[in-house]
């Protein structure tokens, strides 16, 4: 099994770059919304502290869906607005993106989004309990296109296995990328995870997925969009 380097290395190789510089408008948004009680930081200790998804929302939800690496959060907000019965847990390390999603939450008066801020690998490992999640969305993960940077890619077999362990039976994993070699890498890794069975064939776009800026950029650069959708099965 490939391990996730972010998990095991003494000097971790991260799937992201911290970009801390913010515009004055982003700083203002941060100051206004960061302490709104909607943000749950990733604990730095690395000790397991599983959240009960039902307890982080004001009322229990029909489903708990995770939007991993939501970027500026617009698609998270649009999906949550259309599906108020579901609780959305957005995970993002980039502060301006977190602030922007908080702004969307306030602006659209959404009650069904909570944000985990920090390294999402640690968040999934330490904060999400086994079989507690109905769906993971990973839309346009950073592609790290240069070969020497492939080790930074988030979606290793180790991480996919971790995601599979957090899904309820019948829950889904939905990945979209505009980088063909990354899609192939993910499909190959999934072959080693029998809880997420499926044939490596293009999945259909789900109608409720909003188009993101990264998708538009990929299309205008002439790349095609690869959809990977798997449903978790109970192994007997
Ligand atoms: C290319 S962007 C895609 C954003 C969004 N999903 C979209 O489609 O517009 C990838 C995002 O994943 C975030 N990210 C990458 N690795 C992460 C990690 N380990 N934990 C949390 N966020 C991460 C980055 O900060 C970035 O915002």
Describe the structure.
With 236 residues, the chain is of the alpha/beta class. It has one domain: Rossmann fold (3-Layer(aba) Sandwich). It has nine helices and seven strands. It has a seven-stranded mixed sheet with strand order 1-4-3-2-5-6-7, sandwiched between helices. The chain is globular and about 45 Å long.
Give the secondary structure arrangement, pairings included.
Elements: H1 5-8, H2 24-33, E1 39-41, H3 53-56, E2 63-68, H4 74-82, E3 86-92, H5 95-108, E4 113-117, H6 120-127, E5 133-139, H7 157-166, E6 167-177, H8 180-190, H9 213-220, E7 226-231
Parallel strand pairs: 1-4, 2-3, 2-5, 3-4, 5-6
Antiparallel strand pairs: 6-7
Helix pairs in contact: 2-5, 4-5
The protein binds S-adenosylmethionine.
Summarize the structure.
It is built from 9 helices and 7 strands, in the order ααβαβαβαβαβαβααβ.
Strand order of the largest sheet: 1-4-3-2-5-6-7
Our count of helices gives 9
The biggest sheet amounts to:
7 strands, mixed
Q: CATH topology, anyone?
A: Rossmann fold
Judged by helices, strands and strand pairing, the structural class is alpha/beta
Number of structural units classed as domains: 1
First-to-last CA distance: 21 Å
Beta-strand residue fraction = 15-25%
Quickly name the level 1 CATH class. Alpha Beta
Defining key terms:
236 residues, Rossmann fold, 7-stranded mixed sheet, binds S-adenosylmethionine
């Amino acid at each position: 099994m490939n391990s996730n380097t972010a998990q095991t290395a003494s000097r971790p190789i991260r799937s992201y770059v911290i970009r801390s510089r913010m515009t004055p408008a982003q700083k203002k948004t941060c100051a206004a919304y960061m302490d709104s009680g909607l943000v749950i930081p990733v604990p730095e200790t690395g000790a397991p502290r599983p959240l009960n998804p039902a307890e982080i929302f004001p009322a229990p939800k029909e489903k708990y869906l995770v939007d991993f690496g939501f970027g500026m959060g617009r698609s998270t907000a649009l999906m949550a607005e259309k599906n108020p019965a579901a609780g959305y847990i957005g995970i993002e390390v980039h502060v301006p993106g977190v602030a922007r999603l908080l702004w969307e939450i306030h602006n659209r008066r959404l009650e069904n989004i909570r944000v985990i801020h920090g390294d999402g690998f640690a968040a999934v490992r330490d904060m999400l309990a086994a079989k507690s999640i109905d769906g993971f969305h990973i839309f346009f993960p950073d592609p790290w296109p240069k070969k020497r940077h492939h080790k930074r890619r988030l979606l290793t077999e180790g991480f996919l296995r971790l995601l599979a362990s957090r899904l309820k039976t019948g829950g889904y994993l939905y990945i979209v990328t505009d980088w063909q070699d990354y899609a192939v890498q993910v499909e190959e890794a999934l072959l080693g995870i029998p809880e997420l069975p499926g044939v490596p064939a293009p999945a259909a776009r789900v109608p409720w997925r909003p188009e993101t800026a990264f998708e538009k950029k990929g299309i205008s650069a002439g790349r095609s969009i690869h959809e990977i959708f798997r449903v978790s099965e109970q192994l007997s």
